[in-house]
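S.,

Sequence below, as promised.
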Amino acid sequence: MRMKRNTRVNHPPQVNVPPDNRALVAPIYQSVKFSFDDVQQTERHLRGEREGFFYSRTSNPTLRQLELLLAELQGREACLLTGSGVATIAASLLSLCRSGDHILAFAESYGPTRYIVQHLLAKYGVAHTLLSIEDTAGIERVLTATPTRVVIFESPTNPVTKIADIEHLTAHAKAAGALTVMDNTFAGFHNHGHLPVDIFLHSLTKFASGHSDVMGGAIIASKQLIAQMTKDVVSIGPTLDPHAAFLIQRGMRTYFLRYERQCVTAMAISRMLEADARVARVFYPGLASHPQHALAKQQMSDFGAVVSFELNGGYGESDRFANALKFFSMAASLGSAESLVMPARLLGGLDLPAALRATAWMTPGLVRMSIGIEDEEDLIADLKSALNEIAPTG
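The prediction came back faster than expected:
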């Protein structure tokens, strides 16, 4: 049938790539809708009887490729992508919990995680207990005494890189019939997959993207758990855009190169800071002085790119130090190619009761850095120069 021009522009000629002539980089399927040849095949797909795609809020080929990659790296079977890391937290907990359930969470968790647990879910009748991640006796006591649906935690924690005893946590959660949900963003996809965590969450905005230009999140678990959560998560609607998925997939090509470089530099910076008398404490799991260094070494293949440390002079000194840096950008987030710095008070934690804030090591002079891929010597020189600005030596 010969089409008129105003019809043709909406039905352009199709280009089919031969099976033996593949694109080196997978195309972006920037389409909301996908069609089948007839009603019967569409119905078969909607009943789950044949593969394919129908509507991108439910599934999309570009997202599917990224889901398969991330699930494999984390050592699980399936993955759901979302538009941000926070969306994975909210969607997971909303899907897993119902009124009357109880969540065990921790003071050292990401601020939005605490908000979702303490305020959003509380509005719908979900109770919670907030402990320190180091309170192993408290964890056992709560899980023994209180029927618990979910234990949500992270390791290393934000911003002072405490290490959760994951085997202890998962064992007691399993014995109590609770699911473990772990925000694994700091540690990355190559860490903790060998441990019996039920659901992993990642902010893809951080190490996966790596370039500060795209947001996303991933929920990674067994096929069974993802299947149970999919209808709820899709209905909430936090879908990742295909172009964002493409950019994250591109970022993942250099994931290991970046992460390995960042870890090496983070270790060198931690050792330099630890040797400086103007620094009260350094929080980096790779240091032997870290209270949970042995546990981190047992659980992780490396120690991450986040270094936090405490200056002696409180808020004023931490602010002056951060302002004096040249190669560290004053910005939120972490895991990017450029190095970042924030006085930790800007990262939240003021919502915590004073006792829990102290337990979480949230002190006035605390500074958090995310180490990028710049030259190690340049970064160390910049840090030394900033320390000299606030407290000159000699």
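The chain has two domains: 49-252, 255-390.

Coffee later?
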